[in-house]
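Summary for the steering committee. One of the milestones for this cycle was to obtain a three-dimensional model of the protein with guanosine-5'-triphosphate bound, which we needed before selecting residues for the alanine scan. The sequence and ligand used are listed below.
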Amino acid sequence: MSSRQRRFEVDDHESYGRPARRTRPRTKQRPNYTDATTAVVVTRDRGRYTCRVEAGAVTTGDAGTAADAGARQVLAMRARTLGRTSVIVGDRVRLVGDVSGDPGTLARIVEVEERATVLRRTADDDDPIERPIVANADQLVIVTALADPPPRPRLIDRCLVAAYDADVEPLLCLTKADLASPDDLLDIYRPLGVHSVVTRHDEELGDLVRERLAGRVSVLVGHSGVGKSTLVNTLIPDAHRATGEVSDVTGRGRHTSTQAVMLPLPFGGWIVDTPGIRSFGLAHVDPHRLIGAFGDLDDVAEECPRGCTHQRTEPECALDDAVAEGRLDAARVESYRRLLDSRELRAGD
Ligand SMILES: Nc1nc2c(ncn2[C@@H]2O[C@H](COP(=O)(O)OP(=O)(O)OP(=O)(O)O)[C@@H](O)[C@H]2O)c(=O)[nH]1
Ligand SMILES: [Zn+2]
């Protein structure tokens, strides 16, 4: 399948095969899609989707509207009527069939709600196709160790660009603060106004971490060994994410799974752990869209000549005038330009 076709497959929200209004009497052989239970896709594995039905999720049908009693996980497959619509972690879906979640049962996903946001996976040398990985995320948590492994600002920049491009708010999570000071890194990201939290495993998690995560869908991204699993286990004590398993000969680690998993937080909201995702392909990022994430720069850029990319090499970029006139902070413009440049680096840099 060409990448063009695949883009169509993942982006097409028009062809959901939304169920038509019922025009004939319903029979057992012809289930009606309005008789469905709402759920969230929390993980997928070879064509099987684990969906979480919340306590109080509404099931509508001929018998009226009923609220479910307790949260449960329901295994489901895609209904054939979904056609080419993709289903990814974070999708809000409607289920029919056996939605009891009992062992051995399999429900069907008949509808996928339009996605508010889509984060896409790295397009790298091994996998040139960008695939959507998480739907409806509000926040991208860029987990970076302050030491062991050392921080890689260029990688952070790439993640920031991916977040701004997807309209997902970034949060810098600096771990292992017992090993090194966060000050230098915080200085680098302060001009961009990126929110940050600092953690260390030998101290209680600060309230700020929970505050930033509560009630939102946060996707964790970070290289192996930065302390993601440690963080998830602290936030969700019964998550039991494998920690500290140093890579085997394949370099991938014994417990490394490539599937994103969405976990409910005990204080509300969700964490999406993405073990296989380390960075993002940025080839698709449009510089004119990126500046939209920085309102003050965007306002000034209206004075730029048509087609200005706002890079350092642009001779008449209004951002330079604004800095010279003291209307914009030079460090902020410089940081924004560094982000622009990071689009041209390889995904693994
Ligand atoms: N010194 C120090 N070590 C930490 C901290 N947090 C985690 N570690 C250690 O760092 C190692 C890696 O932590 P993990 O939580 O497994 O890291 P991960 O990002 O989940 O790594 P993968 O599972 O490979 O993706 C483990 O040995 C942890 O004990 C911290 O705050 N300080
Ligand atoms: Zn410009």
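Key point for the committee: The longest strand covers residues 37-45.
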